[in-house]
Amino acid sequence: MKIIDIVSKVKVDSKELLALVYTPGVAKSSTAIYEDYDKVFDLTNRSNSVAVLSFDYFESLKRAVYLKETYGADAFPLEIKKNELKEGELDFVINNIMPNFMGVDKVLIEGGAYDGAFNIPKRSKGCVLSDDIKIETLEPVELRRLLGGVIETNVLEVQGMFDNSYKPVAIVSDGSAVLGLGNIGAEAGLPVMEGKAVLFKDLGGVNAMPLCLKTQVPSEIERIVFLLENSFSGINLEDISAPRCFEVEQNLIEKLNIPVFHDDQHGTAIVVLAGLLNAMKVAGKELDKVKIVFSGAGAAGQAIARLLIKMRELISGGKNGTCGGGGANILMFDKFGAVYKGRKENDPSLEKMAEITNFEGFKGSLKDGIKGADVFIGVSTKGILSPEMVKSMADDPVIFAIANPEPEILPDVALKAGAKIAASGRSDFNNQINNSLVFPGLFRGVLENGVKKIDDKVKLQAALALAQIVSDEELNENYIIPDALDKRVPLGLQKIFQHV
Q1: Quick check: 218 and 172 in contact, CB under 8 A?
Q2: Exactly one of 167, 196, 310, 459 is catalytic; which is it?
């Protein structure tokens, strides 16, 4: 049978192209759209994208294939749950998915045939890139303008019985916490989600499609995803601000029969933990005994801390609160200062974090709290860590400054200030701590093995597998984590499901 295959217009096979298609380059396109909404039609594939909506996925798929083969439109098949649909919800869903599409094709819902009439989107735009232009020489915004976004669709013939993994993973975002740019909205977040779709395909062989939603109401996000569930093989939540993201993720895990993974939380936590395991070897320190300071206590910070605590407990054999294990010697800071129990600025998620970290009830500033620390983990904002603060840390400190697109401190500045190891989220420095190392291979393993839930056991095993890809011979200050393009990474993550 024929399916819709989601492919990249740019093959990511070098660090330079990774930086163009994803971070840090993609931030420029998102910023351009935020400043001028109309640019979404030039810098993304929206101008050629159509949602084909019906009450049966295979009917939508048949029409999507027809539209692609006949008109060249990038048509994405979607099924809406007819029996769950309440009055007015069809328009509600359509209105909220529009940031991704030029239009929604309702021919099938209205009783038409799969090969019925189709109005080509008025702003439809294909790739206008000349063959003699070297992609690597282009600026990120110019690349997307010439290509009309970085993803498109093909029709692919598959053999045998249709497998649910042929359906795409939906990259769901509401644009409320895009990279380090903040609440820039669904349209401005679209370049990031297209970039992630490229990485899903090129690094993991997984079909993925952006689903940027107009609404930022958690219950409405959940409702839309629930009604469209049968259109997807999995859900990758992305760039939804905390604490709303915790509610959305947990409720979708409970409601859906497909895997749900909040990449900002758990993908980041897995790759940070993997990097720390190797960094401790290089620095000659023990993960369950070092003092760790966080700048940033949002979705990523909380997820990293929780997974780190679980690993420290496994290493020490102790429970949370015992000397040397769990949350001992972990301090978290946000824009209000140190996170501690009873702090008036705490939301419920931060109060829970205060119960498992900062056992001594420290209430000072980041500048004071970082003194004597062995590890800094930054998931906050650029420039917040100064060279003087690095100098006040313990001997041979480890700096993970992974805010995107600009880190808390540049790696070269941190090293000059005395850091033993410096890592960032960027592909133009050594030691890139970026969740692009995790989600492509992890989802490939999940889909191939029919896994319905990505639990803590899977996350810990993924971190260990990722760390172990770097051999003892390879491991050094400038290489604590595999390269994002290392072919061993997706294979290593897929293999963990043989033991789960």
Answers
A1: no
A2: 196
Q: What is the pLDDT of residue 222?
A: 98
Residue 50 phi, psi (nearest 5)? -135, 135
Q: In what order do the strands lie in the sheet with 292-295?
A: 337-338, 330-334, 292-295, 375-378, 398-401, 421-424
Active-site annotation holds for 62: no
Strands 398-401 and 375-378: parallel
Give me the pLDDT at residue 426, please. Answer: 81
Query: What is the value of pTM for the model shown?
Result: 0.89
Using an 8 Å Cβ cutoff, are 197 and 209 in contact? yes
Ranges of the chain whose pLDDT falls below 50: 126-130, 320-324
Which amino acid is it at 489? V
Sign of the alpha-carbon torsion through 362, 368, 373, 377: positive
Letter string b/e over residues 37-74, b meaning 16 or more CB atoms within 10 A of that residue's CB: eebbbbbbbbbbbbbbbbeebebbbbbbbbbbeeeebb
- Would you tell me how many other CB atoms lie within 10 Å of the CB of residue 314? 14
The per-residue pLDDT for 128 is 45
Task: Calculate the CA dihedral of residues 132, 134, 137, 138 and round it to 10 degrees.
Answer: 80
Q: How far is residue 197's CA from residue 208's CA, in Å, rounded to a whole number?
A: 5
